[in-house]
Amino acid sequence: MKPVLRRYAAVMATAAVFIVFLLLLPLYRVKAVEIIGFQAETMLLVIPPIFVLLGLLDVWVPREQIMRFMGPGSGARGGLLAFLLGSFAAGPLYGAFPVAAVLMKKGASFNNILIFIGAWSTTKIPMLLFESSALGARFALARLAIDIIGIIVIAAAIEALVPAEEVRRLYAQAEKMA
Amino acid sequence: MDTLLLYLVTAICLLWSYLKNREKTRTAMKKAFKAFENILPQFLVVFLLVAMGMAVLDTETISLVLGKNSGVFGVLAASLIGSITLIPGFVAFPAAAALLQGGAGATQIAAFISSLMMVGVVTLPLEIQFFGKRAAFLRNLLAYVFSLIAAVFVGWAVSL
């Protein structure tokens, strides 16, 4: 692990820019501070339980199980599981990355990881009713239909375009991170 | 609501784990904390960037660009705004509904919603950390192009 100061160098640099931003643009001051508060609330509320669940998943679910259900040989069923897992998850997209890392560590295939990320980002089943009531059922269902196709196509395209070497490196890295 | 459910599920899992094996539960908590601390610097950078970006790009600016008859320019602008902002769905949907009622086109709104959910420019540093530059850039680029296709499709489906 890198020394604390070096790991937080980017944070301190951004914080410095933020302070300059607040000082130079008083017009946006209140708004920016409000948004920081709102984001911090989301982070403190949503992120900790996700990480606790991840820790439990890591300890209790054996590698063989994830391998079998979502591994390279899992076929369409593995893809469907990845899709459902992502669609039912709550929280913003950045919450999906650590989950993906644990799944990678446990042997889920790269294609299934990409489907999982795609589903987490856009087909939120819990949000579907909300979207329908706000924007209309036609809007929500049309979006869901095209999104399912998009998720599969994007996953296949990324898998085809990222060299196997790089994928191996990402898996090795996930091993260390989670 | 979502959050409450998340906590309930977490609490049940944690209790079950603790009753079954205290040592394993302790290891799980340690892992959870380590993974969280590992990614905390990136999280903090993203939050600061979001606060600055969102302060400048408020709903009024957004609705100005997505207004009636904004056409192709409006769709492109909508997708660009969606790409660089980070708004949770439960805030974005009502806002989008208000814009729709205010005269924005369904295609523009679909472009905004799709890119908002799939493309994350400000969270890119975080994504690179996990997926590397190549996969992260590719995913965002493809998702951006796709959000335009999705917008045209949704706009067409709504007009049927």
How would you describe this protein?
The complex is a heterodimer of chains A (178) and B (160). Chain A is mainly alpha-helical. Chain A has ten helices and no strands. The two termini of chain A are 13 Å apart. Chain B is mainly alpha-helical and 160 residues long. The longest helix of chain B is centred in the last third of the chain and has 36 residues, at 124-159. Chains A and B meet through helix 2, helix 3, helix 6, helix 7 and helix 8 of A and helix 1, helix 2, helix 5, helix 6 and helix 7 of B.
**Overall tally of domains of chain A:** 2
From the alpha-carbon coordinates, what is the Rg of chain A to the nearest angstrom?
19 Å
- Following the backbone from N to C, one meets helices and strands of chain B in this order, namely HHHHHHH
What's the quaternary structure here? heterodimer
- Class by alpha and beta content of chain A: mainly alpha
Instruction: Determine the number of helices of chain A (DSSP H or I, runs of at least 4 residues).
Output: 10
Q: What class would the helix/strand composition of chain B place it in? A: mainly alpha
Q: Which radius of gyration of chain B do the C-alpha atoms yield?
A: 20 Å
Helix percent band of chain B = over 70%
Shape of chain A: globular
Low-confidence stretches of chain B: none
Distance between the termini of chain B: 34 Å
How many DSSP helices of chain B?
7
Order of helices and strands of chain A: HHHHHHHHHH
